[in-house]
Amino acid sequence: MREALIALEVEGWVEVRMGSGVYVQSLSGAPRASLTAESPLETIRARWTIEGELAAQAARNPAPALVDGLLEAVGAMEDEAGAGFVPIRGDRLFHLRVAEMANNAVLVRVVGELFDERHNPLSVKLGDYFENPDSWAVAITEHRRVITAIAAGDEGAARAAMHHHLSCSFDRLTASWPGAAETMRIDSKEPAAS
């Protein structure tokens, strides 16, 4: 329901006033924004499936230079967050570098395209509601767990850490949606022990 209201707000059909309610906008026939992108929640589910396997593949070849590239991406996230910016560039770089470790250009492109769905109007609006410095600090910690598992060459732990990260991302987006955790759950939040 919350995602539907946000979509209606992005399209200009309703105005959500915090503490007051939801108001229908003028139905004058004025052009509305078009939402053709997939649901942000479906995008996270797709990423969970693909990126978990990519993290496992990355753990098969944890060359120090490649692991350093992952650490550099997380460092960029920390720098962006520390400067008061949403650390999207460093976040994107981290996920692309994990994909690059699989040596498959198609998968790198797919991960980039799925990540870039964050820029569709509905995803941006969801981010406005649910992203904050604390949530980004948690995401950075989750990224470091992925890196630790990859650097150790532990495929199972790398897969579990990436699944954990994307499950937590899903949970952050759905935290205030009644019933979402039960009806749309993508996986257990706990990473497997390595």
UniProtKB/TrEMBL annotation:
<dbReference type="GO" id="GO:0003677">
    <property type="term" value="F:DNA binding"/>
</dbReference>
<keyword id="KW-0805">Transcription regulation</keyword>
<dbReference type="InterPro" id="IPR008920">
    <property type="entry name" value="TF_FadR/GntR_C"/>
</dbReference>
<dbReference type="InterPro" id="IPR011711">
    <property type="entry name" value="GntR_C"/>
</dbReference>
<dbReference type="Pfam" id="PF07729">
    <property type="entry name" value="FCD"/>
</dbReference>
<protein>
    <submittedName>
        <fullName>FCD domain protein</fullName>
    </submittedName>
</protein>
<keyword id="KW-0238">DNA-binding</keyword>
<keyword id="KW-0804">Transcription</keyword>
<feature type="domain" description="GntR C-terminal">
    <location>
        <begin position="42"/>
        <end position="168"/>
    </location>
</feature>
